[in-house]
Amino acid sequence: AQKITQTQPGMFVQEKEAVTLDCTYDTSDQSYGLFWYKQPSSGEMIFLIYQGSYDEQNATEGRYSLNFQKARKSANLVISASQLGDSAMYFCAIKTRTGFQKLVFGTGTRLLVSP
Amino acid sequence: NAGVMQNPRHLVRRRGQEARLRCSPMKGHSHVYWYRQLPEEGLKFMVYLQKENIIDESGMPKERFSAEFPKEGPSILRIQQVVRGDSAAYFCASSPGQGDTGELFFGEGSRLTVL
Questions:
Q1: Chain B residue nearest residue A108, CA to CA
Q2: Rg (Cα) of chain A, in Å, rounded?
Q3: Do B101 and A44 touch (CB under 8 A)?
Q4: Going residue by residue through chain A (115 aa), what tens digit of pLDDT does each one get?
Q5: DSSP symbol at A49
Q6: Parallel/antiparallel/unpaired status of strands B88-95 and B110-114
Q7: Sign of the dihedral through C-alpha A76, A80, A82, A88
Q8: Residues pairing with A69 in the sheet
Q9: Helix (H, G, I), strand (E, B) or coil at B85
Q10: Which of A89, A110, B38, B57 could form a disulfide with A39 if both were Cys (CB 3.0 to 4.6 A apart)?
């Protein structure tokens, strides 16, 4: 079975600062994908970034980067230069072949960006 | 290129009635996933379907819930004899189903309220 743990129920950051949202995972699969999604108050799920288990480089997408530490089974999301519009719930998720390619989500972290 | 379309966006039912939620995947996608999100919680996997087949229903309650993805038409999540605890947001996601990488594309969700 796959499991995602997000230990930070809420995080606060000031505008223009960087913030790290923690995510650890558990799987016995050698091949897996790690994902981060954003859910603003409007409710939709927005894909942010993906990291494959065999990718040697950390994934980056604009202001988002994924700090992938395979030995520690950690996949933290780093948001640089936070903006007010970054205030939302953030979910980490894992996908594996033995899990029938479904996404298994963590409980999420609520990020609040203040001016 | 239309995204994942879910309808209705909001549905109100009285206890004991039936709820039917529809999901049309993105064009070219043959894999559909249903998730449930209770208030202030993460997304919980319910069922994974390909055309005319249920691949993984490990997250579906054993009674009252069913899902289908016919050869023609949208995927349907059906909840019979709804109870107050069924009040939640139900998200559909689709993927082309190639390997265990690749994001799931989410619809905007259907919010069910049971009175």
A1: B42
A2: 14
A3: no
A4: 889 999 999 999 999 999 999 999 999 999 899 999 999 998 899 999 999 999 889 999 999 999 999 999 999 999 999 999 999 999 999 998 777 778 899 999 999 999 9
A5: E
A6: antiparallel
A7: negative
A8: A74
A9: helix
A10: A89
How many residues are there in chain B? 115
Structure tokens, A42: 């409007």
- Residues in CB range of B54: below 8 A, 6 or more apart: B47, B48, B67, B68
Tell me the chain A residues in contact with residue B45 when contact means C-beta distances shorter than 8 Å. Answer: 102-105
- Whether chain A has a CB inside 8 Å of the CB on B52: the answer is no
- B108 and A CB contact within 8 Å: yes
The closest of A37, A22, A29, A76 to A53, measured between CA atoms, is A29
Instruction: Specify the amino acid at residue A11.
Output: M
Say yes or no: A34 contacts chain B, CB-CB below 8 A.
no
Residue pair A92/A23 in contact (Cβ under 8 Å)? The answer is yes
B111/A33 CB distance under 8 A: no
In DSSP terms, which residues pair with B6 in a beta bridge? B23
Q: Give, for A25, the enclosing helix (H) or strand (E).
A: strand A24-26
Token couple for B3: 């995204």
A45 closest CA partner among B33, B78, B54: B33
**Is the separation of the CB atoms in A55 and A75 below 8 Å?**
no
* Residues within 8 A of A (CB atoms), B 57-86 only: none
Q: Do A33 and B100 touch (CB under 8 A)?
A: yes
Please say whether the beta carbons of A2 and A24 come within 8 A: no
